[in-house]
Amino acid sequence: MGAMKAGCGHGSPVPGRSALTSFLANARPWPKAAGGFYFYLDLSRLLQSASGNGGPTTADDIVDSLLSKAGVAAVSGTTFGDPTGLRISYGLPPEKLRIGLSRIVEVLNAWG
């Protein structure tokens, strides 16, 4: 499993981080992440395993699926020159964050 790190750049934890870490702990395979008020996930392992059974082949595919299947918006790493990355903001009220994260994990696990 990969490591996750996030913060606001001041060495202090950001609200929502523990909720995101908790929900993503249920995702398989575990994505690596880093960021400020967002997580930047490395989906390379997920894409490798999912593409073999008809799943997504790029982060763009995952972004499209998250929006259409879960109603959750994310930013594909291709925006940043990384076809296997995914950026998820956690600057939301805790209850909305929990709902969105549950939906993300459900979609990601469908390919795991």
What is the gist of this entry?
The chain is an alpha+beta fold and 112 residues long.
Folded structure, characterized:
By secondary structure, the chain is of the alpha+beta class. 41% of the residues lie in helices and 13% in strands. Strand 3 and strand 4 (85-89) form a beta hairpin.
Low-confidence stretches: 1-13
Distance between the termini: 14 Å
In sequence order, what are the helices and strands, one letter per element? HEEHHEEH
Radius of gyration: 13 Å
Let me know the largest β-sheet. Answer: 4 strands, antiparallel
Categorize the overall geometry: globular
Helical stretch tally: 4
Overall mean confidence score, pLDDT: 78
Query: How helical, in percent, are the residues?
Result: 40-55%
The number of E-state strands comes to: 4
- Largest beta sheet: what is the strand line-up? 1-2-4-3
Q: Roughly what fraction of the amino acids lie in strands?
A: 5-15%
The secondary structure category is alpha+beta
Overview features:
single chain, 112 residues, 4-stranded antiparallel sheet, 4 helices, 4 strands, disordered N terminus
What is the element layout, followed by pairings?
Layout: H1 17-24, E1 32-34, E2 38-42, H2 44-51, H3 59-70, E3 75-76, E4 85-89, H4 94-111
Antiparallel strand pairs: 1-2, 2-4, 3-4
